[in-house]
Design goal:
It is built from 14 helices and 14 strands. By secondary structure, it is of the alpha+beta class.
């Protein structure tokens, strides 16, 4: 028999039992959907690492009180909470020690507890602005670009001036038809003059990076207090070649600034873009394993369903098999037909699962506001796995049909 004829016969047989075939496909669809949707979402997130997790500028390392991936509600959080804050005085000491050894040194502290809202002429922003006390190196250290106006300078910090550089979202909300430069706004009970506007940076994991206000760190401490606040210190070496050397010097300077003795361990965290990526990759790896295990179980269950339904089909069509063999069909032709049916069911379920999985994963990516992707590698892998399931679980029923004795099969009622 021609292979085309075998495919047409298999398709006709499946079409005669539409509901049974559809229910059998459903198990494959669920299994493939679960793994493809998760892999699509993770792939989309990984593609956004450069603009999302990699919030540090190029070739930069940072010292902080907390590690980037500390569990917000676990025992590890309590451990790091007991650490001493990195005070502004310690940060200044580090700054002095590293003068001449680094191109940029950014001191920054975040007012996450402020719930700030900017007001101008009765118009208000959302009450969730990110307020940062920092110096002029913040833009380089956090991969921002100045849109227009000016950046913070050393005099602003030294004199604790009430000036702000604001994000694009604040400009759009408060100054839709005029320039914000030189305008005075009120925020958290204090007035500030806007001197610069940042270029638009977009969102990361659903969080806008353009609703930010940066002010001199000295003004931040005068207005909002220094107690119970920790300072992060980001350092950029003069070149990539000097990165490791500068990092070693930075660690030594930080230990001196913190007053640590030679036999004491570091009581601060060091992280870079690479460490942030590694933290995400480790979490993504666990999610992948979980999705794979769940999908594997679902696909095995679906494969058993295919085997069961094919055995029922062989029993129902015993007489048909006998007739075909009596008119010259070979055992190999029968085997091919039933294997083709099993693969058809498996592949149809797999294709539907891939389509739904990509849609589901990209909907999640859309909600997180990251770029959408199509996971070609996982889609191809899904089709290969579905073929393997169809052949693996369909082989025994197909073999049973192929070895039926034609005379016995013709007698079957």
């Amino acid at each position: 028999m021609l292979f085309r004829e075998i495919i047409l016969m298999a398709w006709s047989s499946l079409g005669a039992n539409k509901l049974r075939s559809a229910l059998t496909m459903l198990g494959i669809t669920i299994g493939v959907f679960s793994v493809i949707s998760v892999m699509t979402a993770i792939g989309a997130l990984q593609n956004s690492i450069e603009s999302g997790i990699s919030f540090l500028g190029s070739n930069i390392f940072q010292f902080a009180k907390y590690p980037v991936n500390v569990d917000a509600g676990g025992e590890a959080k309590k451990k790091f909470q007991n650490r001493r804050n990195i005070t502004y005085r310690q940060a200044l000491r580090y700054y002095e020690l590293m003068q001449g050894n680094a191109q940029e040194i950014c001191l920054k502290t975040f007012g996450r507890d402020l719930k700030s809202q900017a007001v101008y002429n009765g118009v208000k922003t959302t009450p969730s602005l990110t307020v940062v006390g920092t110096n002029g190196s913040f833009l380089t250290a956090n991969a921002y670009t100045l849109g227009y106006g000016r950046n913070l300078n050393d005099e602003d910090v030294e004199l604790a001036r009430s000036v702000l550089v604001v994000g694009k979202m604040i400009e759009k909300r408060l100054f839709p038809h005029e320039t914000p430069i030189g305008k005075v706004i009120r925020m958290s009970g204090h007035t500030f003059t806007i001197v610069g506007v940042l270029a638009e940076k977009g969102t990361s994991f659903g969080q806008s990076q353009d609703d930010i206000c940066i002010m001199p760190i000295t003004r931040f401490f005068e207005d909002y207090g220094e107690a119970n606040r920790t300072v992060n210190i980001a350092t950029q070496p003069f070149s990539t070649e000097l990165y490791n050397r500068t990092l070693d010097k930075g660690i030594s300077a930080m230990r001196i600034a913190r007053g640590l003795r030679a036999n004491q361990e570091n009581d601060f965290e060091i992280y870079t873009n690479d460490s942030l990526k590694s933290a995400f990759t480790s979490v993504a790896g666990v999610v992948r394993i979980g999705a794979f295990v769940i999908s594997f179980i679902a696909l095995v269950a679906a494969g058993i369903g295919i085997m069961n339904i094919m055995l029922v089909s062989v029993t129902e069509r015993t007489k048909e098999i006998g007739v075909r063999k009596s008119v010259g069909a070979r055992s190999y032709d029968i085997l091919q037909q039933f294997l083709t049916e099993a693969v058809f069911i498996s592949e149809a379920g797999g294709i539907l699962g891939i389509i739904l999985g990509v849609i589901g994963g990209d909907l999640l990516a859309l909600w997180l506001k990251v770029d959408l992707i199509f996971p070609y590698g996982w889609a191809v892998a899904g089709l290969v796995v579905c073929s393997a399931i169809g052949i693996g679980f369909g082989f025994y029923p197909a073999y049973r049909a192929a070895v039926l004795d034609p005379i016995e099969a013709l007698r079957y009622e």
